[in-house]
Task: structure prediction
Amino acid sequence: MELIFFYLIAIVAVASGFLVIRCQSPVNSALGLVNTFFCLAIFYVMLHAPFMAAIQIMVYAGAIMVLIIFVIMLLNLGTEARKRYTTGVVWSAIASLLVLFNVMYFIKRGRVTGAEGDITSYTVESVGHVELIGKALFTEYLLPFEIASILLLVAIVGAVVLAKKEV
Amino acid sequence: MITVYHYMTVAAILFAMGTYGVLTRRNAIVIFMCIELMLNSVNLTFIALSSHLQNMDGQVFVLFVMAVAAAEAGVGLALMIAFYRNRDSIDVDDINLMKL
Amino acid sequence: MENLVQIALQNVNMAAILPSLVLTCFGMGLLLINVFLPRGTTRHAVWISVIGLVVTGFFVYTGWGNPQYGFNDAVANDNYTAFFSVIFLFAAGLTILMSDDYLTREGYPVSEYYPLILFATAGAMWMASGTDMLTIFLGLEVMSIALYVLAGFFRGQLRSNEAGLKYFLLGAFSTGFLLYGIALIYGVTGSTKLTEIGIYLNAHGSLLENPMTLAGLVLLSTGFLFKIAAAPFHMWTPDVYEGAPTPVTAFMSAGPKAAAFAAFLRIMEYCFFSLKPEWTAMLWVIAVLTMVIGNVIAIQQTNLKRMLAYSSIAHAGYALVGLVAANEIGYSGILFYMLAYTFMNIGAFAVLVLAGKKGEDNLTLEGFSGFGLKRPFLGVAMTVFLFSLMGLPPTAGFAGKFYIFAGAVKAGYIWLAVIGVLNSAVSLYYYLRIMVYMYFRDAEEDYAWVSLPAAAVISIVIALIGVFYLGIIPGDVMEMAKMAIF
Amino acid sequence: MYDKLWLIPFFPLLGAIINGLLGKRFIKNEKVIGAIGTGMLFLSFLVSCKYFIQLLGDSVKSHQNVIASWMSVGKLQVDWGFLLDPLSALMIMVVTGVGTLIHLYSIGYMHGEEGFYRYFSYLNLFVFSMLMLVLGNNALVMFVGWEGVGLCSYLLIGYYFEKKSAGDAAKKAFVMNRVGDFGFLLGLFTLFWALGSHGVWTINFVEITENAHLLSGDMILGASVTTVATLCFFLGATGKSAQLPLFTWLPDAMEGPTPVSALIHAATMVTAGVYMIGRMNILFAMSPTTMFVVALVGALTAIFAATIGFAQNDIKRVLAYSTVSQLGFMFVAMGVGAFTAGIFHLMTHAFFKACLFLGSGSVIHAMHHALHHAHLDDDAQDMRNMGGLRKKMPITWATFGISCLAISGLPFFSGFFSKDEILWWAFASTRGNKVIWVIVVVAAFMTAFYMFRCLYMTFYGEQKTNPKAKDHVHESPWVITLPLVVLAGLATVGGLIGIPHAIDIAHVGNKLNAFLAPVFHHSQELYKIEAHGSASTEIILMVFSVAIALAGIGFATVMYMKDPSLPGKFTAKFPTLHRVVFNKWYVDEIYDTLFVNSTKKLGIFCWKGFDVKVVDGIVNGIAKLVGALSSVLRYTQSGLFTNYALTMVLGTVVMLAIFILN
Result:
């Protein structure tokens, strides 16, 4: 049952991904992308990471995609002139297929080993995912958290500098 | 039974699709969306692995990847707007002033 | 709840992040002060940021020989970090000093420029000091995002727009590969901490045969090789370097490149030391490819910024030789070379900054006709920097190449050293062309006597001193470089 | 003691800095600039003299003076250090001595030139580099000097940068030198690595000499390590010392001012290759193969350049080819194991060739002045515009003539002793070869011939200068003639320090041989390099070589003194010779058709065909090949985002694929 559900979501995710890369209108691409994000959020729930699912919806689908769609609207972009089927496209297709094959090969032959931790699905349910993430962020990952704040500051300053009409 | 490899396979497919999109599309915004697709496939990999390995590192990593994606979106879209103002296009084939 | 705070505080060790902390504080302070500074000039911002860099330098100095770790092993303020921090600080300082007049001349006296450089420097420092993939990744992103903005800083100029956008798209694309690599490594070892990854890989010998490890290694390398500008991930370099504002190009060619080397070297040595035969073989090919492509294409260039961009690709190739050598001399050679390269390359770019006219259309070989005779100081300075880039003694470039190739010879890579020497012979051709134009062609126009901006001259003089100091007495710095590596 | 050795290169450096920084804006006065440049070098000469004398009286013949540590790599320690031994002591004497004279000469010659300060600054910098090259106690310091002299030569050749040919010549010299430098570095790598594999990490010359025996028996690429390393070093020497096939830059280098040609392209820099072989003589001695190659290349260059010298009318080009040819002699000496003779010839050559160049400079100076005065733009360097200058410029004539006698190898002039010793070793040495001896003898004959041709065309016969300018040719001022006289004196008596044993009637002994013995004897004894033969054979050969020289002079006289309007004085001096010339018209014509013309043609063929087409062709061909590759490769840089991203992906895929396949 779960497996069928997984396949269903996976097919939807891949199909919407296909929309992203094939739709001529940027808005349709964007909508496809939003759909992919939702599918991934469902995966996150299935992987016992409900908080990540929420963040996925809020940050990605909520913030980033809105920004993108906003810019698309702002620039009033029409449909993109389709790239002719030049050798470039064929090369691209070959290249991405090669990437796929390579990575699939490595995944199929490779093994996920790794040191296992103690955060089982049971822990997640009893302690709560938000608390686990929060603890991790403010103890183990305090420095990256602070760096992330600088990162966002840089992005804000940068965006302002670039987009403001007058200095 | 769904294993971590199932998720990783889906992620790999999405990653390759994102790559394909980056290589074939001409609209810079769509290219950026394809890059987001690649980042998301990485996120899926991370969370699948994190869940499988039962530690939080992967999930925290994803959180930061999201922050980075947001920051990149802000700056990237600002760059695109600036380019659009001067060139009246955001077709990457029109980024051709400097070459050879 | 109190328990949580205690746990949080246990991990905090301010000494481990002191230099970057000071630097970001100056960056943020400058952002605030900017509001009150007069518009239309950036002079105050220059001096505040220089003070910030000097103060940071002081804290870097106090940290030497006194390694500090903290934040749950996310960061290490050891000698290695300190050495690279000095490189970043010099790169940022020289860049900032040459920027003031340039920004005014080109019509963008925007003070936000300086905090962005400071933040990029701080990002580079996190890359060098990070001992967790996450810290390194975030440092890389702080640096990159600042650089995307800086490359596209002249928002009214199409060239600058193009540079910024191209750099952004390709940079974000390479980030995807880098992250995928980190994810796969995480899957294999279950950690993102460099030491834990290394220990785990070393302890589980069978993992070395695990294709996922290798895939992770390759994808991770892609991300860093992109930042290093190694072939075949170098293609953004000439376009972006040409289009970006010249001081930004100077900064990009030295600071971020060194930062990428810092992180790459640490990752390779901490995590993948047990995979050394594999990655040295891979990098051998890439180093050769990088040197050849950089030098050969540079021959045909007439735009000086673009020529120096190709030359910077070639120099990345030389530095990679040290990574292939993978011994003490090779590694410390990289550190030394990056410092030397910072002085000589930024120096050369500083000369270009001063030589350029608004719009910089005159920065071509033709435009440099007779330059050396009409502007003697800049001419001599440029000559020295070019000699250093060529690798002639007694300049820093020679000592750097000497160490790197000596490392390669010691590791048994004689052919690599030979290819390197042959390549620097090829590189003479285009460096020499600049000199031929500077000294053996008549000036097409009269150069009026112009007084040079003091700050930019200071930056050239510092670079000159650096080039000669490292060339004539490289021993001390090399000793420090040896103490800095692991 | 020897702890002030650094003063020797320091003074010229100081001069270069003072003139370079202050010359343009603050000093301005030519006399002061010239005095600083010359004075600094003279001080350096005095210090050299002091140490030279000190070394003469010292029983220990090798002294090192380390100023500071330069680099250390593992066990390898490289210092900024100097080495004074008989070889370097002799060299510094030559460099500073001849250098001082040429500086003095330059004050007069460069009078009124734009960039006077620049000239002296470069020239001082050159001497500094040359002294670093000579005094360096390890290969890297030598390399610093090696590069430095190349750089200064480049700057000085291009001194008249307004002329395109000067810029091109400068570039050619620099690039060709770099080909040689590549060989030098490669040799250094090989040596470094080979010694390192025995646990000796060093590039110090003294230590190399001490440990060279470790290398015997080592193989690399199917040849012995010493052969490979020394061949690489020799490639370096061919670049710097203008030997086949890298010699074409030297004649072009004559675009520079004449004193520069005298100092750099005759007396000092071009001999750096010979010096380097002398410095590493032990390694060369270990490899008979390399020694043979050196001798052969030297001999071929000697004869080849001599033939070209036949066909030139530019006075400086004749001297340039003559220099190439004489350098060939030195390499023959090195190649047959006559290290002392090679260095000896280096020294005597420095005297007489510097004198010849300065003499030609004096002539050119006068000609230029006269032509300028008459508003003519005839070529001031073309010998066909000269002739009969003997009376106008007596001092120049006398010194030039003495030097011609010296270079031709007339007895008791300096060239006689050094050249004769080379010939003797080529004939009798254990590493010698009769074929090489024959080639060198023919080259010696030709040398005498074309030098006297040059002398006659310039100073004798009717003055062919444009009548308008004719009377404006005057003797040069004292700053120009004084160096000429001193050098001519040295060219006359300089050979007496190396009188060969066979004719040493007064039993003064071969002073030079004894002096240089600490440097060369070790390797000569160890590898059994000696010249063996009876004194009578030596004397017979000596007489033969004198006869050869006289024959060359005779032929030249026959062919270029045939003019009936010869000054009566000369006719009275050589009545027989003149009668022969005067009466034997047909002989002359036969010579002209059979010998001179064909040789001329050969000369022109060699020059146009080989020099210009083949050698330049190869050099340009490589440049073109790289250029073509470059123009193809740059099209990968299409400027399009898609292509860049595609390349990145493909790069990653290839790396992944390689790991799959492994």
Summary: The mean pLDDT of chain A is 84. Residues 1-103 of chain A form a domain with the Four Helix Bundle (Hemerythrin (Met), subunit A) fold (CATH 1.20.120.1200). Chain A touches chain B through 80 residues (CB under 8 Å). The CA atoms of residues 161 and 167 of chain A lie 8 Å apart.
